[in-house]
Design goal:
It is built from 6 helices and 9 strands, in the order E-H-E-E-E-H-E-H-E-H-E-H-E-E-H. With 224 residues, it is of the alpha/beta class. The structure holds adenine. Adenine (ADE) binds next to strand 5.
Length: 224
Amino acid sequence: MHIDILSVLPELLESPFAHSIMKRAREKGILHVEVHHLRKWAVNAYGQIDDYQYGGGAGMVMMCEPLVNAIEALSAKRKYDEVIYLTPDGEKFNQKTANSLSLKENLLLICGHYKGIDERVREHFITKEISIGDYVLSGGELPAAILVDAIGRILPGVLNDETSALFDSFQDNLLAPPVYTRPAEYRGWKVPEILLSGDPKKIEDWRHEMSVKRTEERRPDIVE
Ligand code: ADE
């Protein structure tokens, strides 16, 4: 999968894909992430990419021209399945969206700043608008990093244990069960006996039961 990211602060996106699972995904050639500096398509030598908003009011708006030129230049090299704008007024990101985006070939992510991008770019070029939650961040870079991480880790071949993503919270609309590691007793606190039983069927049933219980208690909104 190839993901291009358009940003005015590419430095913010250097570290998130350089470690751990994302690093592995890139090294294995399963995930290609390229960050493009929007100022490359600035309207003048000062690197201008934003301007005052019509109608007045505080806050700058990212201009059509640099964004459209960037989107068209990148689209000439690659046919995007989705051109995604990260914005607090987009559809709320969840595991289902991550799963469906992980099946795509090429994605272009647009990171907004200031008051956001000119509405005409949204109307004519953006195919999907995504919010990572009901709060406002200072730009779309951290949301873009979250999208890439959530999508990248479930691409086939990225995780060593092929099955492990299947047991993540939300994968089947259930939260993950509690987990324990050695020692079996710490400060008198014991690991549930069943996990030490060596009986795979019993363990699987217990985990499922715990997942259901946890989901009912913590996230009744996602219980079907
Ligand atoms: N940009 C600023 N806040 C955001 C959010 N909550 N989700 C996606 N993009 C954003």
